[in-house]
Amino acid sequence: MTSGFFIKLGFFFIFAVIVVANSVAETIEEKRSRAEKLIQRLENKYLSNEVPAILQKLEKNELSMSVINAFALEQRLIIQSDLRNNALSLHRFGGSSSKVTNKFFYRLVVNEMSASEQLPVLIQALNISKSQITKYRPLAGAQAYPAYTAWLANYAQPAEIAAALLINFQSFGKNVGRMAKALKQYRGLSDSQLEFLINFSTLPSDFREQAIAIVAKGLASGVSESDIETRVRLIQAYESNFWSALSSIDRK
Question: Which positions fall inside the Thiaminase-2/PQQC domain (predicted)?
Fold first, then answer.
C-alpha cells in the first residue's frame, strides 16, 4: 500500500513538472511574440521614409564639401563616444546569464572598434587636413545623439538599449547607404574608402533577432513597453537633430 502511494506520488510529480515546463514554454513564446509585435509597431511608427535635405542635395550633386566634411568630423566624435558607451554597456550587462545579451553588447563594441578604424580612411579620402580636424567646432544638435546614447549606457535596461539601437541603426543605415552611393557616383570614392558608410548601411546578421530576444527577456522581467518606446522615440529625435544640424551649415 505504501509502495503504491509513492508510485502515484511519483507520477503526480512528473505530471506537475511537465505542466510547469509547458507553462514556462508558453510564457516564453508569448513574450517573444509580444516583443516581435512591439518592435514591428515601433518600426512602423518611427522609421520614416523621409530623406534628409542634405542627402537630397547630395544625390543631385548640389551639396557643398563643407557639409560632407562636417558629417565626417561629427562622426569622428560620435564614434569615439559610442565606443566608450558600448564598452560601458558591455561592462554592465556582459556578466548576464543570457548568452544573447552577452553577444549583443560584445558585438556592439567590436563593431564600433571597426568603425573607428574605417572612419579615418573616409576622412583621408575627403582630403580633410589635421588642421581642419583640430579647428572644427562640433554642432550641439549633432552631438545630442551621443549624449543620449551615453545616458542609455549608464541608466537604461538591455531591452531599452536593444530596441533603441535596432530602430536607430536601420534609420541611420538607410541614410548613410544613400550617402555612400552618391559619394561614389559624384566624388569618385571607392568602396574601400566608403567602408565606414557601407558597413553601417545594413544591419549585422542576426542583430534584429538578438534585439527581439533581449526585448522579450526585458518584458518578462517587468520592463514596460512604454519605457522602451520612449527610448526609441528620443533616439530617433536626436538622429533627426543630427541631420538638421548639418543642414544648418549648408544654409550659411
Answer: 56-184
